[in-house]
Amino acid sequence: MMSAPAELRNVSASSGKVSLNDPYDNTVVIPPMPDYSGRILAYTSTSIVIATGVYQNIFVHWLLWLVAMGMVWPHVAHFITRRTFLKNSPRIRQKMLLLDCAFGGSLIGAMGLVAIPTTAIVLMLMFSCLIVGGVRQWLFGTALTGASLAATVAVLGSADNLQAPLLTSVIAVLATGVYICVTAYYSHVQARALLYAKTQIQNQREQSIALSHKLSKYLSPQVWQSIFTGERDVRLETQRKKLAVFFSDIKGFTELSEEMEPEALTELLNHYFNEMSQVALRYGGTIDKFVGDSIMVFFGDPTSRGQREDAFACVSMAIDMRKHMKIMRQKWRSQGIKTPLEIRMGISTGYTTVGNFGAENRMDYTIIGKEVNLASRLESLAEAGEILISYETFSLIKDRIMCRDKGEITVKGFGKPVPIYEVVDFRRDMGPNRSFLEHEHSGFAMYLDSDKITERERTAILTALEDAADRLRREDDTE
C-alpha cells in the first residue's frame, strides 16, 4: 500500500517522477510524493489499525508479527526499486503496488474480514491503484487483492463477529483518511506544478517560435524549414548536386548611387530586393545572398522537382523578373527617379557543391563550383533587360521557351568555349496570342499581362484606355 501521485505524463520506473518533455528545453521533472514515504505512511496506518484491534481482542495476537513485518517492508521495497537491477525494470512501481495488493488481501483475510478495518485497508489499496495506474491498475489490484483474500480466508476462516468496536473503527477511519488526504495533497501539488510547467513551456514555445521567425529572415525559407523540421542537420557538410544557378544585377545602379542620397537609395534597393524575392519564392527558388545590387538564387536544393523543371522554373523566374522590373520602373519614375534602371541576368545549369561552408560556430549555406562562375559571367556579359543562359540550360528548356543563339564565350575553368543563348520569351506568349504587351514612350507607358487581370480590373482598364484614346483623338482634331 504505497503512495500514488497522479501519473500525468511520463513516470520514471524507479522514482515515479512525472516528466513533461519540452521540445525546446530540457525535460521538466515534477517530483511527486516519494514512494518510500507513501509506503511508510500506508503501512504505518495499517499497523495502527491492527495494533488497536489486537488491543481490543478482535484480532489474534500473532498479527503483531505482521505489524513488525509491515514496518520493515517499505525499506525492503525501497531497496529493491532503487538499489538493485530491478530499478530499470519497466513499470516497476505498478508491479510493486500489485505486490502490496497481494499483501493487503492476505492481511484482510488474516484479520477475519472484520468490516470497518477491512474497508479501510481496501480503500487505501484501491485509491493507490487508481492514482498510480488508472482503471487498468485498479482492475489488476482488485483481482489480486480478492484472490489473496480468498486464499487466506480458506485457510484461516473468518472472524466470528464481523463488527469492530468503536475505537478500532474510529482509528481505522482516521488512519485511512489521513493516508488519502496526504496522498491527495501531494497529487494536488504535483498537478499545480505540472500546470505551471506547461505554462512555462508554452511561453518558451511562443518565444522560440517568435525567435525562429526572426531567424528565418536571414535564411531562405526552404533552408529554414528543413532545419526547423529536423530534415537537415546544422553541421559542416556538403554534397554534389545538379542545380540551376541564377545571377542578376541592376545596370545603371552605380550611376544612380552617385545621384541619390544614401537613405533614398537604400529604400529603393530594399524595395527592389523585396519585389524580386517574392518572385523568386513564387517559383521555388532558394535565395542564396544579396551582394550590393546583385541577387543570387539557385534551384534544385534543398528541394528539387527534377533537372528539367528546376531549369524551367529558374528561367521562368527570370522572365517574370524582367516583366516586373518594367512595372517597378514606372513606379520609380512617378517617384522622381528618372534614371532608367534595367535588370540583367545570367543562368547556368550543372553540378555544383552545395551545403554548409565555414566554421563550426559560423556557417553559410551556399554553393560553389564552375557553374556558379559561369552564371556570374553570363550576368556580367548581358545587356540591359537581357537574360543569357548556358547551353545546358538551353537544352532543358528550349521546347517551352524561345531562345536565340548568341555565339560562344571563353570562361575560366572550362576547357572549350561555352555556347550561350539569349532568352526571348515563353513560346506560348509568342505571336498574336501572347499575354504580355508593353509600350513605352515619352509621356506614355503600358505594361499589360492579361493572364493576371480579373474581370473587374478588365472593365476598369478598358474604360481607362477608351478615355485615353478619346483624349488623343480630340487633341488630333484640335491640331
Automatic annotation (TrEMBL):
Keywords linked to the UniProt accession: Lyase, Membrane, Transmembrane, Transmembrane helix
EC id: 4.6.1.1
Position of the signal peptide: none
Family matches, as Gene3D superfamilies: Nucleotide cyclase
SUPFAM superfamilies tied to this protein: Nucleotide cyclase (SSF55073)
Span of domain Guanylate cyclase: 244-379
Bilayer-crossing regions: 62-80, 101-126, 138-159, 166-186
Pfam assignment, any one: MASE2
InterPro entries for this protein: A/G_cyclase (IPR001054), Adenylyl/Guanylyl_Cyclase_3/4 (IPR050697), MASE2 (IPR007894), Nucleotide_cyclase (IPR029787)
Highest taxon of the lineage: Bacteria
Alphabetical list of CDD domains matching this protein: CHD
GO molecular function per UniProt: adenylate cyclase activity
Biological process annotations from GO: cAMP biosynthetic process; intracellular signal transduction
PANTHER family, A to Z: ADENYLATE CYCLASE, TERMINAL-DIFFERENTIATION SPECIFIC-RELATED (PTHR43081), BLL7624 PROTEIN (PTHR43081:SF18)
Protein known as: Adenylate cyclase 2
